[in-house]
Structure formats: structure tokens, C-alpha cells
User: Fold this.
Amino acid sequence: MAEKILKTEYSEEMQRSYVNYSMSVITARAIPDARDGLKPVQRRVLYDMGELRLNHDKPHRKSARIVGDTMGKYHPHGDSSIYETLVVMSQVFKKGMPLVNGHGNFGSIEGDGAAAMRYTEARLEKFAEEVYLKDLDKTVDFVPNYDETEKEPEVLPVRVPNLLVNGAEGIAVGMSTSIPPHNLGEVIDAVLAYVENPEISTRELMEYMPGPDFPTGGIIANKKDLPNIYETGMGKIKLRGKIEIELGKRRADRDKLVITEIPYTMIGAGINKFLMDVADLVESKKMTDVVDISNQSNKDGIRIVLELKKDADVEKIINILYKKTKLEDTFGVNMLAIADGRPETLSLKGILKNYLDFQYRNATRKYKVLLQKEEEKKEIQEGLIEACDVIDLIIAVLRGSRNLKDAKSCLTSGDISKINFRTPGFEEDAKKLHFTERQATAILEMRMYKLIGLEILALEKEHKETLKKIALYSKILKNRSKMDEVIREDLLSIKEEFAVLRHTKIEDGKEAVYDETAVEIQQVVFVMDRFGYCKTIDKNTYDRNKESVDAEHVYIVPCMNTDKICLFTDKGSLHQIKVMDIPSGKLRDKGIPADNLSKYDGTKERCIFVTNAENLREKRLIFATRMATVKLVMGDEFETNNRTVVSTKLQENDEILAVMEIGEEREIVLQTTGGVFLRFPLDEIPVMKKNARGVRGIKLGKDETLEKIYLLDENTVIEYKDKEVPLSKLKAGKRDGKGTKPRL
Assistant:
């Protein structure tokens, strides 16, 4: 049979495939469902743990066992995503209400990763067991798993708005979700208010649920923005860490600033980054009142201690911490979830509506199932009660039957054609029997002890209870207000058992103000050795140790701590470093590589001239390259906020030989590698822009390059081939001449 070739437009096929892929990522991986607030991998892990009977009162089970079972049955996308999900659902510093109880190393708030899954164990938290997995068989639909060998729930019958309680984070294709966690008790109060009045406004809901509640505590500092965030489902929350002041108890003790709570966004490496940022602020003298910083955090909580100088300006330090570190940060809110099969950014009321619609559907299904069971139980109970009243007739039928089929036929239809009554007088009564199939089966399976008087009374009592339940379930199904009452009671019971106190304070915080120019202006000395290590030292320290400092360093630049250091390199680049960013060191401190403070790369370029920006502004600079190109540039050409700029455009294979400041000098001498010298007036070199290449200074011989340049005054004498050469005695020439060799 000939193969049939289908032709299609390539671009259309790619577009269709990409749309399918993106929708798969959005709906089946990265974005939570608005009904249970869970992503598929979270749902599958919890369901699998429930199937493994890992209840809160049972022993922990190896995480590798849970991960393997989940991957084999429900989530074939790799073990790493499953284990990461398991870990995150157990971390009390990430989830408003943890769903997994981890045993072993499940990571830390400071960014330490969890141990490998073969070392850790887990089981369900009681909250997950009671609130997320209860009534699975009565409420939600089950769908085939990936290979149709198992069934898994489409959603879990979560009884609280999990989207709000535990929040959500996920990055899909072209969209992402970021929902902050909230306080369980407050969320339940908001739901109850919404049930009571579906027309309630967002601001009225916020009287019950004033804002997010992050497990790390901290402070929400923009309370005024929260109503708009809950109305639109989008916005930014300003988070701050909590700072306490501890006064020294004794005269010799230092006062301390203690950070006891951190912004939620600092979870992980953020704490170490914060410590480094504070250390940098201290070294750069922006926080001179801080003398020591230590991280004393432990399993009991966060405790980062900053020791202060006597009479330190505490308010200024707090402002600097909020302004210059991640102790103040923003949490971007985008309440995106899958609602009715498609991604949608939901408002607070939108989340509550989706949740309640889901609860009504679940409650309806649950009470229909319960009603059906009670009606079946009622049918059996009525049959047994009636059988007890005619027990002699039942016994006669059983004794006269040849098999179970004949007995059952008689009980259900009064057919006595195959019954051989041993005692006459029961035939007419037997014809009137009309038990149902279910009742007949229960009668035939009934044990004799059920005929005891107390057992019959218990059966009648049980029947009355069944009738009450049937009446109650019917009322709930027929009456919306009654169903509201059931949901309300259910939520109140959850709140009573599981609610916790709020962690995060909400306020309209005062804006942190820090004026960098207000830093105390000081005179310092920038020093840099031949290996590129640099630091600043106090001016008085330099003056006392001038000889030793000059001997150890290539570049020494006096400057103010508010200035910038300018590094010119042989590759035609200018790198600028704020003096504030350069660590202030002691005399014997090594310093820090300039590479770490700028884009300067000591492995690819060489520093040839260093000055400070303030000094540069008033000067003229001369640039000379190996290929004898020269130019003059005004210092103010380099006034820029860019950290790196081009100082000279170079020809191919050329590099800058020298950059020099021009003072009162009027002449220049160029020296080539061939020993040729050319002396000419400086004003023959044109003043050009920093990006210009320049003009030729001297005509080079074959294989010659420019070796040195000298700015000439009356007393300039150099040593050349072990002879002293007074440069002022050289023959004067013109720029771009051939030059001469000196007489030795």
C-alpha cells in the first residue's frame, strides 16, 4: 500500500504545536487550580501519601518511597520535581499551613538544601489529612492516570481556600502566578462573611482578612495599597524585616539592633546576601556606627545582631538598612489560577466565589451519596424489623426451602410453589411476603442473636437515627441556607482546631529616607599594588607611613570618600569605581581586587594610569599608543555616570602605551624601540574627543613601535644605554617627523 503524504504549512504547524505545549504547561504543571489551590504535582503527592496510609498518627515513611510511588503511578515527569514539592510542603517558613510532616533534614530558612530523599522521611500533617483528603470517595471525580492503569482525583476536596491559605508560585509559558499566604483563621472569617453576604465589598472583606500573613513574619509597610491589590489581583506588597533595639544592661555593654523577623522574599540565600551587604556598608563607611554583625539564628528563630557604637544614630541606621539592603523588599502579587479550565487573574472575591462554588458542588455530591446510603440502610432496617415480627413464618419458609434461591424467591414475591412447609398453616401468610431484594438478602444473612429483645430495640433505635439523617440530608440538599449552615459549621470546626495567630504586622510604614550625600566627607588615600589589589586608608595613617606605603604600591591617589577613582587601561577603556565602594583597610590589609569592584579584568587588560574624577575634571590628558598615535583630551570629557566607557578608539593590534596629565609643560619627547627621539611642542597635538583615534606623533621605522613618552621641562634627564640624556638638549622638531638618535 502506497504511503500517503500529508502537506502542511510549517509555520502553522509550529504555531499549533507551541500553543499546545504552552497550554499544557499552564494548565497541567505550573498554575494551580482555583478549586483546590494545588498544582498537579502537589495534588498527586498528597493523594499518594493518603493512599499509602501515611496519616499523622502513623510512622514516617522514606521520602524515596513516596517519590517513587508518586512517579510510577501518577506523575511521570521525574523524581526531582516530586521531591522538591514534598520538601516545600513541609517547610514551615514557606507555607502558611504545612501539609507534610518531614523527619530529617528538609532544608533551612537560610537556604540550606534538603538532604537526599533516601535520607529523609515524611508523613501527612493532620491538617492535610482532615482538610485536604477527607471524603475523597464522596465528592470529586476521578480520572485515568497517564497510562490508564490507575485512577487519580481531578482535584482534592480541600475544605478551605488553599489559594489564599498557602499561596502559590509558578512560572508557565508567557505567564506566572504569585499569591501570598494568608492566616487560616482570617481566611475562614472572610469566607463566612462572604457566605452571609455575597454582595460584600472587598474593603468589607478586609475587615476580616486585612492582608497576607507570611510565615516569616515581618511587616507589610503599604497597607493603603492592599485594597487595590485584592480588587485587581495584581500589585506589589512592600515587605520589611522586624528590627528591635536592645539596650546594653551594663555600662560597658553596647546597644544592639536585633533583626528577629525577615521579609518572606529573603528566604534562602537572602540572609547571607543581607549579611554581606551590611558588611559592605560598614566597610564603605556608610554605616560607621555599626562595629560588629553576627548571625545568631537557630531553630528557635531569626536573630541577626548589629552591635552599635556609643550614641549611635539608630534611626539613621534603620533607614540605611531598609534603603540599601533587602531588609525592605517587594513581593509581586499576581493571583493567577486555572478557573473553569482556563488561566484567569482573580480578585479576592473571585477566589472566594470559585472556592464556594466548588464547596457547594462537593457538598451536594457528598450529601447525595450519604442520603443514598441512609436510604439503603433504611430499606434493610425496615425489612429486618418486619422480619422480626413474622419470624416464625420466616423460619418456616427457610425450613421448607430446598436452596437459597427458592427461599429468596418466596421472601420477595410470595412464591410458595417450591416450598415444602413442614408445619401447616403458614401457606397463606407466605403468599403475602413482599420483601425487596436487598431486604431479603439481609434477612437471609441475619444471625440468630439479632432476635434477642435488646438487639431488636437497638435495631429500632438505629432505624430512628437513620430516619433523622435522611430528613437532615434531604433538607440540606433542598435548602441552600441549610447547606450554607453546614459549610459554616465545617469551617468553624477547622478554625477552632487548626487556626494560628497572625505572624505579619500590617501598617502604612514611614518611607525610609537615606541621603547618600549626607555621609561624613573625609579625605582618604586610594592605593593599588601591582597585582591590582586596592583599598583606601586614612589620610593621617598614610602621612605617618608614607615611605612604606609608596614602596608597596604602584598607584597612590589622594581623594575624598565621595569621589570616584578612574582606571585607564591599555585596551582603551576607562573604569570608574566609587570610593565609597572601595573597602577601607588597615595599613597591612591586602585589599580587594579592582576586578571585584568594576568591569576591569586584570587577565585581559593592564592598568596604565589612575586618578580621581574630581582631579581629572580640571586637567588635560595626553594619550599615546604603541603605533605612535597621540591626542589631547580635556578631562571633563570623562564626566559620566557610566562605570565603564571607551577612552580611545584603537586601530587593530594597537594598544595604549601611556596616559599622562599635562601641567605647565610645553613640549613632549617621543622615544621609539629603535632608540629614535622626537622633541616637539605640545600644542602641535590637537585636542580631540575621547572617542577619536588621534594623529601620528612620529614616523616609525620598520618593526619599530613607540616605547616611552616624556613631558619635557628644563631639568628632564633620562638614562639611556647607561648614559644620561638631557632631553632639553635634543634637537627640536615637528610632530610627525622622523626624529633623531641622541649623541652618547
Remarks:
- The CA atoms of residues 319 and 512 lie 5 Å apart.
- The chain has 22 helices and 34 strands.
- The first strand starts at residue 61 and ends at 62.
